[in-house]
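Researcher: Let's do a round of design. I'm pasting the structure tokens now; please hold your answer until I've finished.
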């Protein structure tokens, strides 16, 4: 089951669906979840894609819970694999068959994800946005491997990684039965990293599949001031969930002695510094003061 979350993006969703028509793997269904759109996406999608199941949320539940609505539906339908796919992506015809092929190789593999390119990097289509992710629990730094690098074949090994991007992430049914859904309290950002780490703690691996490829219109349906708040707050929540006490103390020291000043300086030098800085500081405060469940 492919779960696609739409929020005020009917045009980019239509482009995503058009690319899926060319996929060479036939055993899949598409589930569209509209996340409380206000641009009449629901009417458009219902009229133009009657063969696809459409679920409608009354309000914007965020990335995590919005996708959870689709995941629950897929689980009830006995789907063996559930693929979360951003509506602002364009898929290579072989991406799904490659993901399934690797996922079937080993029972320990819980999550698989593709090589992700920028949809348009100054006119180039071969610039990598994501080739797997690694996270350091001593500093709280998460890194998108290969980000902004031209693809010269340097990331062609299928390998285990710390996390995969939620823009295209396939998970086995048994993993969800074991560790549960995305953590809805995150709302947006860090939830897929949390999911992969929870899977790792349960004995499942996350695997990067280089021959599966998609192109992503990065931040087509997100971004803005709220994203800065959630990214910052959720970093602290993620660390509280997964770091040891010693690691969390190390993270706090690194954040407040290094990262805080770097981030603040970058924001202040930007044109829209006041609002972004406010959201950054608000995120820090919420991340520290509010205990994550």
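Researcher: That's everything. Go ahead.
Model: Designed sequence:
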């Amino acid at each position: 089951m492919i779960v696609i979350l739409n929020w005020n993006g009917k045009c980019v969703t239509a482009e995503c669906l058009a690319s899926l028509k060319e996929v060479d793997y036939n055993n899949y269904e598409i589930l569209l979840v509209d996340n409380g759109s206000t641009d009449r996406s629901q009417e458009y999608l219902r009229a133009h894609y009657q063969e696809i199941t459409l679920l409608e949320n009354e309000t914007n539940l965020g990335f995590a819970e919005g996708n959870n609505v689709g995941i629950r539906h897929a689980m009830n339908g006995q789907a063996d694999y559930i693929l979360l796919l951003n509506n602002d992506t364009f898929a290579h015809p072989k991406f799904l068959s490659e993901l399934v092929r690797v996922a079937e190789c080993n029972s320990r593999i819980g999550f698989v994800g593709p090589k992700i390119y920028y949809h348009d990097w100054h006119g180039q289509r071969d610039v990598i946005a994501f080739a797997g992710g690694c996270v350091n629990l001593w500093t709280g730094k998460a890194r998108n491997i290969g980000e902004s690098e031209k693809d010269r074949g340097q990331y062609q090994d299928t390998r285990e990684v710390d996390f995969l991007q939620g823009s295209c992430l396939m998970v086995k049914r048994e993993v969800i039965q074991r560790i549960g859904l995305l953590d809805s309290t995150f709302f947006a950002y860090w939830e897929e990293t949390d999911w992969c780490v929870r899977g790792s703690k349960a004995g499942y691996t996350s695997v990067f599949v280089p021959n599966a490829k998609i192109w992503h219109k990065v931040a087509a349906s997100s971004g803005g001031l709220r994203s800065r708040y959630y990214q910052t707050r959720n970093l602290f929540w993620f660390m509280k969930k997964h770091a040891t006490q010693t690691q969390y103390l190390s993270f706090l020291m690194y954040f407040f002695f290094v990262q805080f000043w770097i981030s603040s300086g970058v924001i202040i030098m930007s044109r829209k510094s006041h609002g972004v800085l406010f959201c950054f500081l608000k995120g820090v405060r919420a991340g520290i003061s509010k205990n994550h469940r």
